[in-house]
Specification:
- The complex is a heterodimer of chains A (110) and B (110).
- Chain A is 0% helix and 56% strand.
- Chain A has strands spanning 3-5, 9-13, 18-25, 32-37, 44-49, 53-57, 60-65, 70-75, 84-91, 98-100, 104-109.
- In chain A, the strands form 2 sheets. In chain A, strands 2, 4, 5, 9, 10 and 11 form a 6-stranded mixed beta sheet that branches.
- In chain A, strand 9 (84-91) and strand 10 (98-100) form a beta hairpin.
- Chain A is globular and about 40 Å long.
- Chain B is built from no helices and 11 strands.
- Chain B has strands at 4-7, 10-13, 19-25, 31-37, 43-51, 54-57, 64-66, 76-78, 87-95, 98-101, 105-109.
- The termini of chain B are far apart.
- The chains are: A mainly beta (110), B mainly beta (110).
- Chain A binds chain B through residues 4, 8, 31, 33, 40-45, 48, 50, 87, 89, 95-103, and chain B through 31, 33, 35, 40-45, 48, 50, 56, 58, 88, 90, 94, 97-104, 106.
């Protein structure tokens, strides 16, 4: 089985930087994904990490350490529209199982 | 436009009734998935299909059924055996390392 943990809620200020952590314990590993989900909408793909290190994509970056079972999503220059839930998901050895954490609800305040 | 279309967006079911949620994609993706999302919870896998005429149970398949007669279509039936069906249902398809989601369907039991 897989266990994926993320903080339930976070609050940050517009223009600031926020880091959302994700830890996982898995029987296999073939990649970690981050998705953004606004309330009542479908998740949208943000990033994919399969090797250790930092992947940067505009204001969003994602980091992975496979030895530590740890990832984070870094959001820079926060905007009000970044208020959403951020889902961490881990793929094991097959595409049968893309297992999701419960999500982190991020509130960006003025 | 290419994408994943789910219908209906909102559906009310009386207890004891079966209902079917539609999922159609024109992305030419082989793999398709159904997830369920409850408030404050992560996505949980109901069924998945890697190719036409083949599908497999996910983690919470009890009370649900699917078919995959065409590549484009992967309907989900919520049967009366599903005791707590009120949830947000997400259909998805995959290409390469990325899973794309439809807009979701809200099912409420009245």
């Amino acid at each position: 089985g897989q266990n994926i943990d993320q903080p339930t809620e976070m609050t940050a200020t517009e223009g600031a930087i926020v880091q959302i952590n994700c830890t996982y314990q898995t029987s296999g590993f073939n990649g970690l994904f981050w998705y953004q989900q606004h309330a009542g909408e479908a998740p949208t793909f943000l990033s994919y990490n399969v090797l250790d290190g930092l992947e940067e994509k505009g204001r969003f970056s994602s980091f992975l350490s496979r030895s530590k079972g740890y990832s984070y999503l870094l959001l820079k220059e926060l905007q009000m529209k970044d208020s959403a839930s951020y889902l961490c998901a881990v793929r094991d050895g097959s595409w049968y199982a893309l297992n999701f954490g419960k999500g982190t609800s991020l509130l960006v305040t003025p | 436009d290419g994408g994943i279309t789910q219908s209906p967006k909102y559906l009310f079911r009386k207890e004891g009734q079966n209902v079917t949620l539609s999922c159609e994609q024109n992305l030419n993706h082989d793999a398709m998935y159904w997830y369920r999302q409850d408030p404050g919870q992560g996505l949980r896998l109901i069924y998945y299909s890697q190719i036409v005429n083949d599908f497999q149970k996910g983690d919470i398949a009890e009370g649900y059924s699917v078919s995959r007669e065409k590549k484009e279509s992967f309907p989900l039936t919520v049967t009366s055996a599903q005791k707590n069906p009120t949830a947000f249902y997400l259909c998805a398809s995959r290409t390469g390392n990325t899973i794309y989601f439809g807009e979701g369907s809200w099912l409420t039991v009245v």
